[in-house]
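yo

u said u wanted the structure for the complex thing, so here. seqs first:
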Amino acid sequence: MSLKRIKTLLLVLLASIIAVVFLLPLVWMVSTSFKNDFEALSGKMNFIPLKPTFDNYIKGFSGELMNVPILQWITNSLMVGIAGTAIVLLIASMAAFALARLKDLPLRRTLLSMFIASLMIPGVLTFLPMYMEFNALGLINTYAALILPYTAGAFGVFLLYQFFISFPKDIEEAARIDGANKWKLYTHIMLPSSISIMVTLLIFTFMGIYNDFVWPLYATTSPEMRTITAGIAMMAQGSYTQSYGKLMAMTAAAAIPVVIIFILGQRSFVKAITQSAIK
Amino acid sequence: MVKSWHSKLTSSLFVLPYFICFAAFLLFPILYGVYISLHNFELLSPEHDFVGLKHYVTIFTPGTYLNSLFFNGLWNTIQFVIYSVPLLIVVGLGLAMLIQHLPGKIRGLFRTFYFLPYALSASVMSVIWLMIFDTNSGFLNSLLTKLNIPAIPWLTDQPWAWVSLITTTLWWTIGFNMIIFINALNQVPEDFYEAASLDGANAWDKFWHITLPSIKPVMLFVMITSTIASFNVFAQPFLLTRGGPGDSTKVLLINVLDQAFIRKEIGSASAMAILMALLIMIISVVQFRLTYGNKGEES
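structre next:
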């Protein structure tokens, strides 16, 4: 064996050991979710449960488990994530299109710099007043409170603006000569050509909303309004902590949708991170 | 003239929906937050007396409750920043370089493995690690017992609490920095390394004289984003250590939210939040200036 081959093998070995460290907590979660409480708390390090059971999942989903409406929580998260993402995609793409392509937009430069500057504003600045705003409107513990705050984020506008600004001018001019108005230009030329970047934004936004937990933790007060992340956070602080089998089943159920989307859309997700880094 | 007025209006209509959301859920809350911080604003009381800068003055008056709440929280946050940021940079770069040196076919696979925890929410991440760090039945202490090492109180004793919080933070977020570093490393021209090899440079020389200078701007970007993220730390201590042992991991954001939602003192909590936000913005501006300054020197 050549020296180079040995070196490569050692690197693969090192990478594999690190991979085990990264994956082990997830494997342990799945393994524990199939154990009964006694086995889960026994301190045994067995990855394959001695008496595998679906009980934790069945009881969890049927709501039998300590009155936790786990299906309702997942439904809430999916609904809030989908609605929030749809609004963000629509309003951010319209705004980005106007900022990048409609030169007669009044205060164009001011708006653009205001939106981009807002990316630097830490969430802590708006958290409490936003709570008080929703509280005053009587909207705490409603879907509106769970969806609307995400629509103000400027990341989507910023990302799509960069795409639209570099879009070739001649296609747009040809369409204009053919008599297309601004709305047609947006729906027939800009939107279809930006599908790939829109998918990137979609995955990024959906995961951000689905995974957020501080805002939904405070913006919901009744068990049935909670999102799955806020619900799991509440469970982690209650008496459920002594029932790892059940807690892990719920945690796995919370993680599975977003992990699937993440793996499927990884390429897009990486693209969004990269594009946010190159400013 | 009429046509141009009309055209400007339709252009504006495209921005209007986003602008309404921006105004309602960002601009207005910022102004409202300033207003709240100047009042005695209690969640349950309908009366809000104007108190001017009283909350701010109290925060800076030694010996007051607000003063210790703010500065203890700040000190705990700063400790977290000091422990986590260097590791977030070094480990992120290390993983990126490791992946670069793997055979092409398996690179994507390992990148996914290291990046996967980033997909999890804070609460999922915390619940998994609560189980692993559990003193009596947790995975880590079971492992130590097998090796005849006494159990470690991972979340309830210092310095272990910090060790645990930093470990989970690295596991959870390092994928983000790794991705950025992988991109940066891909952009270093291959001929630089070839030329250096001809000159007889070893691996360390190449790293020190080619890799590091080439990725310097990205390095600063990662430093800025990691510092800001660490300053905003909340989920890990809130869910894993509950701010303990004692108050040693009660970071600033925990104290701000406790003041608002447990003690229902929204006015003083808002003042703390505004000071915290200002601090974060000052840090990012300073770091941006450093980035900009360095770019200026190079060109």
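DSSP finds 13 helices and two strands in chain B. Chain B has a mean pLDDT of 92.
cya
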